[in-house]
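Marked as duplicate of an earlier ticket. Keeping the data here for the record.
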Amino acid sequence: MKRVWKLSDAAQSELLSRHRSSAAGSKTLQHPHYAFTLTNSPSYRLTRDVNAQTHSSSAAPSSSSPLISMSSIIDLFRDKPLPQDMRAREDLARTASELRDELVQNIGDSEKIVRVLEEKGCSSLWEWKYGMGVVELLNQLRSWPQLALEVFEWRRQQVASSTSMSAEEYAKAIIIAGKAKNVELALELFTEAINKQIKTTSIYNALMSAYMFNGHTAKCQSLFRDLKKEPDCYPTIVTYNILISVFGRLMLVDHMEATVRGLKDLGLSPNLSTYNHLIAGYVTAWMWNSMEKTFQKMKEGPVSPDISTHLLMLRGYAHSGNLAKMEETYELVKHHVDDKEIPLIRTMICAYCKSSVTDRVEKIHKLMKLIPENEYRPWLNVNLIKVYAQEDCLEAMEKSINEAFEHKTAVHTAGVMRCIISSYFRCNEVDRLESFVKRAEFARWRTCRSLYHCQMVMYAAQNRLKEMENVLIQMENLNMPCTKKTFVILYRAYLMCGQRCKVAQVLGSMWKHGYEMPFDSLLS
């Protein structure tokens, strides 16, 4: 009754204020007792501020003033966070952050973690209604899923001596278990919540998310069908977003698009997550035109792109080789990518590796500086070796080769090996090539005749026939018999150096193996 009286009191104040503004020149009130009551009302100052804004916006009353008055009254019924609520939430986040930091310092020591929770957890977080304190702590521990699950397990054990757990706590724990690849625990928590009659849509959504993260798409869709049969629960836009993500991961684009189209019939409006999952599905399926159309629709429609959208578009542009738009998008989210999106930086580097832009090495170097040294990836290192070899950046190429040897990364692709050989050949570095070949043999990299043929040609060009012949011995030790190309290299090397006797021996060996004689040998 007290709240109803306050709202009624505020409404009377608003109407009285309108009466004042409509009475030109009048200085006396017809109902002076209202003035005394309203000025002492808690809502008086709020109403007075609304009136002041209204009078400042228009000097004369308009015909729509009753509508404006009603809208001002309706605003009083809206559920707005009070300043004290905002301060309480900030205090909760700060308290959870302090507790998180202390828990993270004791990762791996279960006894200390329990001690910290017993000393600081109960008094500061468990007293919040609906488990909001626990949910906030679990949310801040999302980067340490195993630790978060330890905290929740301790919370489960404390339920007997405190308030029961809420649906929000169960839902958050189920999602964390899914991200920790512990689907069995996620299902166990879901079953426990259902048995305790904590049956909400958020619980179903959480288990669907856990199945989605771990690739159990059939179970995810089966759970969705179970949710639709529940009389007290019904799918929400979050539920359908999970389905869209599942279809996108499976590249079932038709199902994904049909789900989005069906939202309108269900009375649901696509939100930001809907569009982001849709774009992610198109990126997975490499449907670049559909990806771009969806992004443009977001820019033109009521749902604007957020940073996650731009990150998805950046990945899509990188995979599609659209370097111009990739660089444009990167400038928009550079501050975030440089600090938190190392995998995306690798994707951009890979895009430059596949391109043919003239300054790709400089751009790759700038991005490589953003990757910590302990973030080594074999596939990226091999790509860098290939790019540096193609650009004849010998120092950078050998640095990447040394990193590969240090991390025991073996190259098994003939194309990469040929790029390395060609780079040494163009730079006329036969001694470096010889050193690389020996190390590659020891590390069990892909070996092919091109390696040794290139050495032979380079030694012959420098009139170093002894080293050239040693290469033949290496080939024999590796069970690489001479081919026609090997004999042709020997023939031209000896001919160029004036070794007529050895030229005749090579021609004899070619005739013995059934190979055709070089044309110029028939003329001599």
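See parent ticket for discussion. The domain at 83-298 is CATH 1.25.40.10 (Serine Threonine Protein Phosphatase 5, Tetratricopeptide repeat).
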